[in-house]
Amino acid sequence: MSAAPDATPVYSYLGPVGTFTWEALRQVPEAEGAAWRGVSNVGEALDDVMSGRSVAAMIAIENSVEGGVSATQDALATIPGLRIIGEYLVPVSFVLVGRPGTALADVRVIAAHPVAYAQCRRFLESQLPTHGHVPAASNVAAATSLLSSELAEAAIAPPGITDHHPLQLLAENIGDNPNAVTRFVLVSRTLGLPERTGADKTSIIVELPDDAPGRLLEMLEQFATRGVNMSLLESRPIGDALGRYRFVIDLDGHVHDERVADALLGLKRFSPAVMFLGSYPRADRQQIEVVSQYGDDVFTDARDWLRGILSGEPEA
Amino acid sequence: MSAAPDATPVYSYLGPVGTFTWEALRQVPEAEGAAWRGVSNVGEALDDVMSGRSVAAMIAIENSVEGGVSATQDALATIPGLRIIGEYLVPVSFVLVGRPGTALADVRVIAAHPVAYAQCRRFLESQLPTHGHVPAASNVAAATSLLSSELAEAAIAPPGITDHHPLQLLAENIGDNPNAVTRFVLVSRTLGLPERTGADKTSIIVELPDDAPGRLLEMLEQFATRGVNMSLLESRPIGDALGRYRFVIDLDGHVHDERVADALLGLKRFSPAVMFLGSYPRADRQQIEVVSQYGDDVFTDARDWLRGILSGEPEA
Amino acid sequence: MSAAPDATPVYSYLGPVGTFTWEALRQVPEAEGAAWRGVSNVGEALDDVMSGRSVAAMIAIENSVEGGVSATQDALATIPGLRIIGEYLVPVSFVLVGRPGTALADVRVIAAHPVAYAQCRRFLESQLPTHGHVPAASNVAAATSLLSSELAEAAIAPPGITDHHPLQLLAENIGDNPNAVTRFVLVSRTLGLPERTGADKTSIIVELPDDAPGRLLEMLEQFATRGVNMSLLESRPIGDALGRYRFVIDLDGHVHDERVADALLGLKRFSPAVMFLGSYPRADRQQIEVVSQYGDDVFTDARDWLRGILSGEPEA
Amino acid sequence: MSAAPDATPVYSYLGPVGTFTWEALRQVPEAEGAAWRGVSNVGEALDDVMSGRSVAAMIAIENSVEGGVSATQDALATIPGLRIIGEYLVPVSFVLVGRPGTALADVRVIAAHPVAYAQCRRFLESQLPTHGHVPAASNVAAATSLLSSELAEAAIAPPGITDHHPLQLLAENIGDNPNAVTRFVLVSRTLGLPERTGADKTSIIVELPDDAPGRLLEMLEQFATRGVNMSLLESRPIGDALGRYRFVIDLDGHVHDERVADALLGLKRFSPAVMFLGSYPRADRQQIEVVSQYGDDVFTDARDWLRGILSGEPEA
Question: Whose CB among A264, B196, C101, D126 lies 3.0–4.6 Å from B254's, allowing a Cys bridge?
Answer without folding.
Answer: B196
